[in-house]
Design brief:
Strand order of the largest sheet: 3-2-1-4-5-6
Helix content: 25-40%
Radius of gyration: 17 Å
CATH class: Alpha Beta
Distance between the termini: 18 Å
CATH superfamily: Ribokinase
Largest sheet: 6 strands, mixed
CATH architecture: 3-Layer(aba) Sandwich
Strand content: 15-25%
Number of strands: 9
Length: 264
């Protein structure tokens, strides 16, 4: 077991996304996962039916206790929900986590359409937490919300990613799964240039938790000493196989096969 990842995110009772997916992904890639739970959700493959926010002080306490004792080689943020949560976790980063890489998945809307980040928190996310990130991993709707304008198709993807880069993160992984077409193209944009990752789209409803899983897989790679581009490449390979071998549970957007790396 190598690489300590502190995951700050919401719980998914269905096990396909959120903290549950994060823990599975980090563990399946040989890392150690610790958590600070930001919210409890009641959900399954058909949608999110309830959200119970965790008190802000308790979120901070979870982070502080893990960092003081176990430590972390990378911190991954997922569902944060409220402006005060964003401000609190950023405060913990400043006080306890100087120099630790940060993977920020700007979770805004669940696969089924539920709002996971209140609209008034978007500006707080942009101004407070995005500038602290080593890499942010938005899907297309999230990227457009953060940038304040539409992508304009694949030709505009790099320009959109660079607008997000101007907000202060070291790198932006703009995911392309929400675009139409038979090919999925992700762009990793940083001060070092642009890396393009492309592959055929898998025709399946079993894609619940792909964003959470990808971000945590990247965090595991960073925690284990991989350079960012290598961490992204390995994480994408992991997620693609997890989608391809998904178990088909539930009647909606089904979970991935997070354990495909684990032999019996």
């Amino acid at each position: 077991m190598q690489g300590r990842v502190l995951i700050v995110a919401g719980s998914d009772s269905g096990g396909g996304a959120g903290i549950q997916a994060d823990i599975k992904a980090v563990t399946a890639l040989g890392g150690y996962a610790a958590t600070a739970v930001t919210a409890l959700t009641a959900q399954n493959t058909q949608g999110v039916f309830g959200i119970h926010d965790v008190p802000v002080e308790f979120i901070s306490q979870q982070m502080e206790l893990v960092l003081d004792d176990i430590g972390a080689d990378c911190i991954k943020f997922g569902m944060l929900g409220q402006p005060e949560v964003i401000e609190a976790v950023a405060g913990v980063l400043d006080a306890k986590a100087a120099g630790i890489p940060v993977v920020l998945d700007p979770v805004m809307i669940a696969k089924g359409g539920a709002q996971l980040l209140v609209p008034e928190a978007v500006e707080t996310l942009k101004s407070v937490l995005v500038p602290l990130a080593t890499v942010i991993t938005p899907n297309l709707p999230e990227a457009e919300s953060l940038a304040g304008h539409a992508e304009g198709g694949l030709d505009g993807a790099e320009a959109l990613a660079r607008d997000l880069l101007a907000l202060g993160p070291k790198a932006v992984l703009l995911k392309g799964g929400h675009r139409d077409g038979g090919e999925v193209v992700d762009l990793l944009v940083s001060g070092d240039g642009v890396a393009r990752f492309a592959g055929p789209r898998i025709d399946t409803p079993n894609t619940h938790g792909t964003g959470c899983t990808l971000a945590s897989a990247i965090a595991a790679g960073i925690a284990q000493g991989l350079e960012l581009e290598a961490a992204v490449a390995r994480a994408r390979d992991y997620v693609i196989e997890a989608i391809r071998t998904a178990p088909g549970f539930g009647s909606g957007h089904g979970p991935l096969n997070h354990g495909h790396t684990v032999s019996a």
